[in-house]
Design goal:
The chain folds into 2 domains: about 35-305, no CATH class; about 355-485, Rossmann fold (3-Layer(aba) Sandwich), CATH 3.40.50. About 60% of the residues lie in helices and about 5% in strands. It contains 19 helices and 7 strands. It has helices spanning about 1-30, 35-55, 60, 70-80, 95-115, 115-135, 140-155, 165-175, 185-210, 215, 220-225, 240-260, 270-285, 290-300, 305-315, 360-375, 385-395, 410-420, 460-485, and strands at about 320, 330, 355, 375-380, 400, 430, 450-455. The chain has a 5-stranded parallel sheet, sandwiched between helices. The chain has a two-stranded antiparallel sheet with strand order 1-2. Strand 1 (about 320) and strand 2 form a beta hairpin. The protein is globular, with a radius of gyration of 27 Å.
Amino acid sequence: MGRTDQSFQRGCHDYCRAVINSWNTFWFKPQDPFAMSMIRILVGWMSFYTVLVWGMRLDSMFNVDGLNSMEMINNHLLRFEGPFAQSFWYYVPVEWVYPVHYLCLAITFCVMIGLFTRVTSVLSLMILVSYAYRARYANYGLDQINAILMLYVCLANSGAYLSVDRWLKSLRTGKSMLDPVKPGVATNIAMRMTQLHYCVIYMAAGLGKLQGDTWWDGSAMWRGLANAEYQTLDMTWLAYFPWVTEFITHLTIAWEVSFAFLIWRPLARPWMLLLGTGMHLSIGLMLGMWTFGTCMTFGYLAFLSPYFLRSLFQRLAGYTPALAGNADQQIVSAAPPLVSETRNSPRAMRCEHVILLDKTVESAHKTTAEFVKRNLETTLVQTLDELLDQLEQDPNAGVVVNLQKLSDADVETYFTSLLPMNLSDRPSVTLLRNRHTVWLDRVSLPDYQRILLLPCDRIDLISELEHAFMFVNELATDHSSLANRV
């Protein structure tokens, strides 16, 4: 009985420790700020646009006797929403309305380009809230989601990438290559809060819709599309196909209610985000609410891996957004050759340097010793961020990654982002356990990205690494021959 009690206590202790570790990892694991930097640009642009649009009717909206008069504000807003519904516009004299408005435009523009980001992001949040409360009866969901996202932009180190602040830092230091951007806990908290806020928004929207009969009988979507007040496109032809609007109605409800649960599953996440993007863009296309629908999709970047976004940005823009925190440098070239060397085109490499990611101390020590015996310079790293730093510092190094001690989140990031993007032109060997093999069905690996199942001999590891370099050199030779023929 005593042994049973000890086993039960040990199991409870291990379970509680696992829960605590998962909680700490979820909230307090340092996160790269690239995703929040992109959100800063997009939300800053939308904030600038919103303030600019308010200025088109500034007298009507913000004058004492305008559409939202101070009498109305005092009698209704402050009375029913309390003393926290504050706005600096309550205290701006009439003669200062336009100068203050222009100053607000300048501040929101600064946060968009990343100038004095820490200060201008906080000021932009105050501006958005103040405009929304001063014109309380003329705003809608766009103003609210703008302020929500700007709040989390304030929390994160959102000026770390793609910003004037970073460019000015490179000028001040005189360095063409800045130190790597360090992942931060505040950035992770900002991303997690954005994710949870979206879950709450969609769950509240879904449960609220379920209180209406039209969402149960499937006619809600048709009523919205047939409403001439919001109609951008004439969709009344759908009256002949009622099953279409009924299907869209029920799909919308199912998506909103299930978002808070399925978005955390790696396989379901892309589909949930794709459905959400389609829904919001359809709102803009059919109901004319482009700004709201577009702004809602900005927050989806918080659900994507920063590593994936950085690599994707580099590929699409032909631009290096400081993958390891280096100063942003645009790649400028002459007329492109007929056969160009892209990041996916491997180049000839010699097996002289290996970057080893292995969090198992004994294994890392023995593997490093084996590499040194074979005259291979070895750099040992402990995290994916350190691996990215080393990849930028040595473009000719091979890579060996042991997944055994990595968290599930890091394993997901490795297979979905680092392996197909950052290691796409590198000879590499990935060591994994049986539980990791499910990822092999979801990725397509070239011959120079080798896989070894643990446990294995280090001789096998050396052999696979040599094969990886051999394959990458063969591909580079074939590519060079093709270029010469062209």
